[in-house]
Amino acid sequence: IALSKKQDAVLVNLRAEVEKKANEQRLSEINKSLFTACKNGDLAAVEQALSEGADVNAKEGKSAAILWAI
Length: 70
Hints:
The structure is a single chain. This protein is mainly α. The chain has 2 helices and no strands. The protein is elongated, with a radius of gyration of 18 Å.
């Protein structure tokens, strides 16, 4: 099926948006893992979350940043 340039651009943009949402969800899960690991004092899990790209400045809802979970 041949697509026009406009249709192709729309599909590219849509694909990028879907990937962005998936990456945001993944990062949110990693950040939650980091919060839990900090709260539980689980150094190995903290290191794992950080190696997966957890954001040390992330916040859990409206609460303080992860550093306050320690």
